[in-house]
Amino acid sequence: MKYKNILITGSAGFIGFHLSKYLLENYNDIQIIGIDNLNNYYNPILKEKRNDILKNYENYNFIKMDFSNWHDLVNNLKNKDIDLIIHLGAQAGVRYSLENPWAYESSNILGTLNIYELARKLNIEKVVYASSSSVYGGNKKIPFSEDDNVDKPVSLYAATKKSNELMAYTYHHLYGIKMTGLRFFTVYGEYGRPDMAYFKFAKKIISNEPIDIYNYGNMERDFTYISDVVDGINSAIKKDFDYEIFNLGNSRPIKLMYFVELIEQYLNKSAEKNFLPMQDGDVLRTYADLSKSRKLLNYSPKVSIEEGLKRFCNWFLENKEWLLKT
């Protein structure tokens, strides 16, 4: 590993946790500084459990802070050795952005600006940052390619992620910082976010509660298992690009009803279904074109939706006593 001192934002989040754990287990000579504000967007018990696992590694140093506070960010990190930033921290969720847009401006716009400015002030060579498939909005061209126009986001969350990409280019152009953006496509798996559909479905099915199915089930998603995303991020760390954006998906859109059937099968329990119209900010289909990622990152997703959901459901059943409280 070229980089020895890595700052990971959102280290107690879903993707940040899995990436940190992977790096700590596979590279003995690295030091990770993880930062997270452990906020209550969803139950902090899950973030704390992830973080407690990471704290077992002696080369993991956690600092609780909000990176949207420039003063705290600089004071905590100005004397740290950092040669790579992996910026995964963000206010997540398309639907919540309709309720609390200010949280997205604070974390995703101001917070990301702070991270890029920190990279400039500390003379950090490279930043790998999280973007999202949501930037494609209601794109009619299938599959979604990095070359597609993404100027019409259909949610504020998507708009903030597009903004992150634009700011990244500016910091690359002005200051020469290498910037690699990764557009994640519906990442799922163990220790995932409880606000996401698969997690909510599992909780409600186990609890004998009805599940909400939007657009009457007529939707498709390019679900990407967490280990495949981690592989993609690891490749982006190793490879040097001046400024690039990559899709990290599975390139196999899954019909929502088949997705529900698999969860029912692996939980061995049928769901009571509440069919509803489409929600504001939602899209009918996501589908990643992986041509560029395969060529330049050697990215090749390996875990099928069937295998990935089976792993998640087995984990959920093993841990359901505390997961039902999240």
From TrEMBL:
PANTHER family: EPIMERASE-RELATED (PTHR43574)
All residue ranges annotated as the NAD-dependent epimerase/dehydratase domain in the record: 6-249
Keywords: Isomerase, NAD
Coiled-coil positions: none
GO molecular function list: isomerase activity
Entry protein name: UDP-glucuronate 5'-epimerase
EC number, as in UniProt: 5.1.3.12
Domain of life, per lineage: Archaea
InterPro entries: Epimerase_deHydtase, NAD(P)-bd_dom_sf
Enzyme class, UniProt record, top EC level: isomerase
A Pfam short name: Epimerase
